[in-house]
Fold this sequence. Notes:
By secondary structure, the protein is of the alpha/beta class. The protein is built from eleven helices and twelve strands. Helix 1 packs across helix 2.
Amino acid sequence: MTSTSKIYILSQRQVGDIFLDTIVLASIDNIRHDLEFMLIVQPHYYSIARQIQKLLKTNINIITTNDPVEKPVFELSPLERSFFPLIDLIKYKFKYNITFYRYWRPLRTKAPINLKFVYLAVQYIFLSLIGSRKLKANSSDTKFFLNESKKSTHVLDILISTSSNYFRIDPQLIRDNIIFNVHNSYLARSKDKAYNDILVLPSVGVASKTGPNKEIPQSIIDEIITLNSSNNRIMVSYYESDKRIDSYANHYASLTDLVNLITSSNHIIASDSFPAHLTVYLGSRITIFLPGSHYGLFHPYPKWFPKNSLTEYIIDRDNIKNFNCCGNCIKCLETMHWDRIHKNFI
């Protein structure tokens, strides 16, 4: 029997980030049979993280930041950290000598020098001083040109680059195994006759306190229903914490519920969120309302990733000059005014 070595992976961000981390780690698990992965998540994400492992049929174990860990510890994502994840990372650095990376995400030309920008700059410098490794993402043909001078690399390629560097694995081999796993998990290809023609998944989680949120607003949902209800079966589904239930709306309480909804629908309409990433992975047709603040980072997916050929993105094409901003300024928030850009879709 081959012995394995445990390695602890810190993944303390949102559900979508845990899902993307899992996609990459499952690929590495195909390659490195000598490793046993212990994925560390925030306690309130423990249940959904376990459901993700079950859905993707991984061998990855889930523990929380409250559980004891052992060396070695590695943080997979080098993207900027909010305050509390940064504090936790510092604790892991001094207690377990965690290996982690820093990555400066390309912002648009003449991005504002505001508090968010200063925070990111100070964080980047501080992490360099406490021993982070600098990452140069290897993304081959997956960069999205927003104009002549600005590019963005998809988060999967960023995660592949950190994994390739840390585990000394050819990045193309990691991509090949992701593609292999996606094809093996295409639940959508074996679905029964669709129950819904259109499924709308508006929610993204906590609403923004500073401006327009990524969540699809009710005004657009109403218009989608009005224009499509005569010839289509439409369902609007929210996570269970949302109390709005009417003739078109219901809620899902688990990942299994969400997968069943997606795979029993012909066309999904969603915002940039975990359900959108899940839909792309399952191979279902999807239209994604995509804010320009992170364009190219989470969507569109890279060319090498297998996805439904009918996948489309609704973006503010008249406001591209403000894409890839800090995510917090007025010009950035203007790139997610759905009441203006939804006309590209309707």
